[in-house]
Specification:
- The chain is elongated and about 75 Å long.
- 80% of the residues lie in helices and 0% in strands.
- The chain is an all-alpha fold and 102 residues long.
Length: 102
């Protein structure tokens, strides 16, 4: 786990040069900057996981990226199942409502 965390910070430092080196910000600001960098990184990966800049930085983390993509696919399938269930419940409720009105 330590290696994965160090690799993650290495990726952030490579992509966001402002966090690579001694910081002059307060601790609270440093926390906010790191969180912001993580959010921006995740957004870039969500919008274009094949971004050429990210490919240069993240080439050694390809197996991790495959796992993430697989998890995202499973989450989409799970979401579709819940959407189907929600639609079914809504349809039953609507039919019950219409039956009671008549």
């Amino acid at each position: 786990m330590r290696t994965a965390i160090e690799r993650g910070f290495g990726i952030l430092k490579s992509h966001f040069r402002s966090i690579d080196g001694k910081s002059f910000w307060s601790y609270e600001t440093q926390v906010d900057v790191i969180l912001t960098c993580c959010i921006i990184h995740n957004h870039i990966m969500g919008v274009d996981p094949n971004n050429f800049l990210m490919e240069e930085i993240c080439s050694e983390s390809e197996p991790i990226r495959r796992i993430i993509n697989l998890n995202q696919r499973e989450e989409r399938e799970e979401n579709n199942e819940w959407i189907t269930k929600r639609e079914m419940v809504a349809s039953i409720m609507w039919n019950d409502y219409n039956t009671q009105r008549n």
